C-alpha cells in the first residue's frame, strides 16, 4: 500500500504538501532523466566533435560517455549520506548547481581534454538526481507500490532516449554541438525551479543521520551485508552494463563504423529505446498483481534466451546482420531487461528504508561503476561488427541470472518473502 511520509510512525501530525501522484512521478522521472539527456542528446554530435578537435578513431569519442559515468558513479557516494543528514532538497539544489557549472564549461571548451573535464563535472552534478530521486521515492512509497512508481519513473526516463538524439540532431542543423550543451543547461534550470517550487522535504526527522564517517560506514556496511540488497544491486549493475554497452557502441554501429545512417541514426536509436519504454509501462501495470520477483526473474531468463538467439543470428551474418534484424533483436533484448531493471532497484532498496539516502548512494555508486566498466569493455571491443555487442549481452545476461540465483538461494519467481517496511527504529 502506498504510504506518504505523514502515515509513517512518528509523523502523524505532518501532512503531505507536495505534488500529486502524476506530478510527483513526472518530476522525479525528469530529474532522473537528466542523465539520459546528458548522454543521449549529444551522440549525433560525435562526428562534429571529432572534426573540431581532430580526434583519431571513433572509439576515443566513447570516453565522452564513460568519463561522465565515472564522475556520476563516484559522486553518488557523497549525495546519499549528505542528504540523510541535511535533507533531500538542499542536497539536490547543490547537485543542480554543479551540473550547471559543467554545462557552461562544456559550452566554452576549446579542447577535447577540457570537454572531458566538463563531462566529468556534469556527471558529479547529475549524480544527485540518480541518488535523491530514488531516495525520495523510497521516502514516500514501499514494496510493490515503490516498484510501481519506479516503473512509471523509468517509463518517462526511457522516453528521453527516443527524443534526445533527435533533439541533438535538430540543434546541429541550426548551430554547433555547443548548442546541445546549452539545451542541457536550460533543462537543468527548469528542473531546479520546478523542484524548488513543488517538492517539499521528504526525509522524516526521525530518520536523519548525522554526517559522520562512522555513520556512513555503518550504512554502507548494512547495504553490503544485506543479501537481497547487495545481490540485486549487483544484478542491476550487470544489466545496466548491457545498456551502457549499447549506448557506447551505438554511434559507431549505426553511423560512423557500420551502417552509416547519418541523420537517420536517432530513428534507429529511438526504436530500440522505445521498446524499453513499452516494457516499463507494462511492468508498472502488472507489478502490483504479479510481484517484483516474478516479473524481474522472468525478464532475466527471457533476456538470456533472446541474447543467445541474437548472437546466433549475428554470427550467421558474419557480424553484420541486416539493419532491421539487428534493431528487432536489440529491441527485444531491451524490452525483456526492462522488466528487471526497476524491480531490481526496488528489491535492492526495500530492506533499507531507515538508511535510504546512504543506501541509494552506495547502490548507485556500485551499479554505475560496474555498468560503466562492463559497457566500456564491450564498447572498446568494437571491431566493425556487432559480434562484441552480441557476446556482451549474452555474457552479462547469464551473469545476472547467476547472481539472482545466488541471491535467492536457487529459488526464483517469489522466493525471499516480504521484507519489513522499516526497522523498529532508525539506524544509529
From TrEMBL:
Q: What residues form the membrane-spanning segments?
A: 21-43, 63-80, 92-110, 116-137, 149-173, 179-197, 218-247, 267-287, 299-317, 323-341, 353-379, 385-406
Q: Where in the cell is it found?
A: Membrane
Q: Which GO terms describe its biological process?
A: xenobiotic detoxification by transmembrane export across the plasma membrane
Q: Which CDD domains does its entry note?
A: MFS_MdfA_MDR_like
- Which UniProt keywords are listed? Membrane, Transmembrane, Transmembrane helix, Transport
Q: How does it sit in the membrane?
A: Multi-pass membrane protein
One Pfam family hit: MFS_1
The Major facilitator superfamily (MFS) profile domain sits at 21-411
State the source organism's domain of life.
Answer: Bacteria
Q: Which GO terms describe its cellular component?
A: plasma membrane
Query: Gene3D superfamilies attached here?
Result: Multidrug resistance protein D
The Swiss-Prot or TrEMBL record annotates one GO molecular function as: transmembrane transporter activity
Predominant location: membrane
- InterPro entries for the chain: MFS, MFS_dom, MFS_trans_sf
Q: What is this protein called?
A: MFS transporter
Q: To which species is this protein native?
A: Methylobacterium oryzihabitans
Amino acid at each position: 500500500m502506498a504510504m506518504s511520509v505523514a502515515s509513517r510512525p512518528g509523523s502523524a501530525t505532518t501532512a503531505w504538501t507536495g505534488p500529486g501522484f502524476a506530478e510527483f512521478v513526472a518530476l522525479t522521472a525528469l530529474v532522473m532523466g537528466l542523465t539520459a539527456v546528458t548522454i543521449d542528446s549529444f551522440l549525433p554530435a560525435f562526428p562534429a566533435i571529432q572534426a573540431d578537435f581532430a580526434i583519431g578513431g571513433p572509439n576515443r569519442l566513447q570516453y565522452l560517455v564513460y568519463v561522465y559515468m565515472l564522475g556520476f558513479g563516484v559522486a553518488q557516494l557523497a549525495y546519499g549520506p549528505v542528504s540523510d543528514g541535511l535533507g533531500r532538497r538542499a542536497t539536490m539544489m547543490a547537485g543542480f548547481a554543479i551540473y550547471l557549472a559543467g554545462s557552461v564549461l562544456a559550452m566554452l571548451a576549446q579542447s577535447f581534454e577540457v570537454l572531458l573535464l566538463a563531462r566529468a563535472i556534469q556527471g558529479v552534478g547529475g549524480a544527485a538526481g540518480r541518488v535523491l530521486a530514488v531516495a525520495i521515492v523510497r521516502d514516500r512509497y514501499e514494496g510493490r507500490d515503490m516498484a510501481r512508481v519506479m516503473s512509471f519513473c523509468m517509463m518517462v526516463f526511457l522516453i528521453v532516449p527516443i527524443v534526445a538524439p533527435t533533439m541533438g540532431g535538430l540543434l546541429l542543423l541550426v548551430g554547433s554541438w555547443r548548442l546541445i550543451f546549452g539545451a542541457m543547461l536550460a533543462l537543468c534550470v527548469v528542473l531546479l525551479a520546478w523542484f524548488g517550487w513543488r517538492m517539499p522535504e521528504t526525509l522524516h526527522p526521525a530518520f536523519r543521520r548525522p554526517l559522520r564517517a562512522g555513520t556512513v560506514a555503518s550504512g554502507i556496511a548494512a547495504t553490503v551485508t544485506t543479501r537481497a540488497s547487495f545481490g540485486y544491486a549487483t544484478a542491476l549493475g550487470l544489466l545496466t552494463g548491457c545498456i551502457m554497452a549499447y549506448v557506447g557502441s551505438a554511434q559507431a554501429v549505426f553511423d560512423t563504423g557500420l551502417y552509416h545512417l547519418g541523420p537517420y541514426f536517432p530513428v534507429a536509436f529511438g526504436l530500440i529505446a522505445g521498446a524499453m519504454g513499452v516494457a516499463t509501462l507494462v511492468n508498472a501495470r502488472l507489478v502490483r498483481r504479479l510481484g517484483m520477483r516474478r516479473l524481474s526473474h522472468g525478464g532475466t531468463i527471457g533476456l538470456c534466451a533472446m541474447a543467445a538467439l541474437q548472437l546466433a543470428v549475428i554470427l550467421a551474418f558474419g557480424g553484420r546482420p541486416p539493419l532491421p534484424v539487428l534493431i528487432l533483436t536489440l529491441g527485444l533484448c531491451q524490452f525483456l531487461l526492462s522488466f528487471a531493471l526497476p524491480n531490481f532497484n526496488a528489491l535492492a532498496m526495500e530492506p533499507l528504508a531507515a538508511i535510504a539516502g546512504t543506501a541509494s548512494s552506495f547502490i548507485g555508486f556500485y551499479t554505475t561503476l560496474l555498468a560503466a566498466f562492463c559497457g566500456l569493455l564491450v564498447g572498446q571491443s568494437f571491431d566493425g561488427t556487432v559480434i562484441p555487442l552480441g557476446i556482451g549481452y549474452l555474457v552479462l545476461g547469464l551473469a545476472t541470472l547467476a547472481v539472482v540465483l545466488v541471491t535467492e538461494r536457487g529459488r526464483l519467481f517469489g522466493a525471499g518473502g516480504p521484507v519489513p517496511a522499516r526497522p523498529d527504529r532508525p539506524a544509529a
